[in-house]
Predict the 3D structure of the following.
Amino acid sequence: MDLSRLRAAFSGRLLVEADEMAPWLTDWRRKWTGRAIAVAQPDTAADVAAVMRWCHEQRVPVVPQGGNTGLSGGATPDQSGAALVLSLSRLNRVRRIDAANNSLEVEAGVTLLQVQQAAREAGRLFPLSLAAEGTCTIGGNLASNAGGVQVLRYGNARDLCLGLEVVTPAGELWHGLRGLRKDNTGYSLRDLYIGSEGTLGIITAASLKLFPLPAAQVAAFIAVPSPAAAIELLQRAQQQLGPTLTAFELIGDTCIRLVEKHVDAARLPLADRSPWYVLIEVSETRDEASANEALEALLGSAFENEIATDAALSQSLSQFEALWALREDISESQGAEGRTIKHDISLPISAIAEFVEQTDAAIEKQFPGLRRVVFGHAGDGNLHYNLSPADGDTDEARFVALEAPINRLVHDAVVSFGGSISAEHGLGVLRRDESARYKSEVELALMRTLKAALDPHHLMNPGKLLP
Ligand code: FAD
């Protein structure tokens, strides 16, 4: 295919050699590798539109890519070599801060960390936070409706977005960058593009919600006897701490043992082990003393009622970070142990304890000895229900062969409890077919109608999200 017209159509870079394109053709976890006719790196939204017009004319499929940290294979092209990868990484300008409106306008390729920093420089908080924040982009966060650790208080990416600028598959530019909290003027196109995983259009910029910076943040690492006790603690915490409760993470002891094994500085901050722990963050808009006081009152009542057995509170920023590191290092520590089978699931909070109990028992019965590495944003009903081979088992092929039947077992259980098989990582190619299995014909038909209306030639990220 003659790419000279494309090269002339925009001012960014165009990579065409296999070796220079390689970093854009494999996903973060190295699970998928594809081929592409080129990787285009436009500099501006107008350039993105020019690339899209060329792709539309030539009927070339497009795979949008931000920081390439997605965990579902959504940003990797397929093996056909027919698609163009459109990288947004050079659209990296912070356009405008409106402190009085508590809003910030940024281009899609700005990393999440840079968004947080820009907000902080204006004396504001942008609360979306996840372990890939130094690399993932705000465009990718919105396209996959990312969650992270502060959803409990501030919501997910969708809740933090006021407006979008989008390039359509035909190369038109939609200026939807309204910094408004109220706008009832018809269908919410913004909400359609958020979470669409690059299958409807290209997000080129976003208007984001900002919040006051908290005056103090305190974390507590709490031993609890069971997930049921953790959920009781969550209800008490919501009651007693109100909106200052910012994060509520459930962590199984297997997770902490893996972190202690693989991270030198990691230590359980309690005298005795417990089968489960909860990590709570309180971010107080007044001061540290009142945050501590509120947490101590919560813990006092939790000890009295035997829903918690021990706790450690952070007394400094370094202790706060060390407690959070125990949570954030779980994924990497599990990876260091060898192959993994992972599930990013969502459940009604009231069903978490029963789900864990029943699913643990079913896994142990059918696949005895596997290690269950269970943790997650329990305050949002989101668990990472992961598995590792039995300690010392080095037969990787046998473990990998278990993935499909285990997925079926776990996801059937999730759906039977009224849950979802993707809480925050999206469908991409990883969960595309399984998700379709659990959706009704009506829901699938509505989704296909939307896709056909907005992308009639099926050029946007083909093979992702919908079978
Ligand atoms: P990419 O991976 O580049 O793309 C993701 C999807 O969005 C793809 O389908 C792609 O086609 C599409 N896309 C990207 N940019 C655009 C755009 N501008 N317009 C249209 N479509 C686009 N996720 C969570 O939700 N919570 C977590 O706590 C979390 N923790 C993580 C921790 C680690 C260590 C890692 C590696 C990942 C984690 N993730 C988490 C997953 C990932 O970081 C998020 O999904 C992130 O939002 C993806 O952003 P990205 O810029 O890397 O997008």
Notes: The chain has a mean pLDDT of 96. Residues 28, 63-71, 74-75, 88, 108, 130-132, 136-137, 139-141, 143-144, 146-148, 197-198, 202-203, 331, 424-425, 428, 461, 464 surround flavin-adenine dinucleotide (CB under 6 Å). The chain has four domains: 4-87, 94-212, 216-331, 338-425.
